[in-house]
Amino acid sequence: MVGGSYVACEFASIFNGLVAQVIQIHRGEKLLAGFDDDIGSFIASAMIKTGVNLQLKTQVEGITTFYRSDFKALKHTLSGSTERTLMKLLG
Description:
Elements: H1 6-17, E1 23-25, H2 37-49, E2 53-55, E3 60-67, E4 72-78, E5 81-85
Parallel strand pairs: 1-2
Antiparallel strand pairs: 3-4, 4-5
């Protein structure tokens, strides 16, 4: 999941609740920038406790799609390094 808005946090929490491994990447220092600081801190803490891998102050440099025999996957490049996230896309 890319972003720190309430929509990104909501979807990260939904997927995490469905027992998916979730990485949420946000370029800012905190989640929910437009909200009270305590709310953003509370949400971040709760998400980490439930298993979301939260990566703040991380810039996404690019997202590309690649295909394998049984699924379509995404690769995202983070500031200075590359990490692969395999995601089976239904359809």
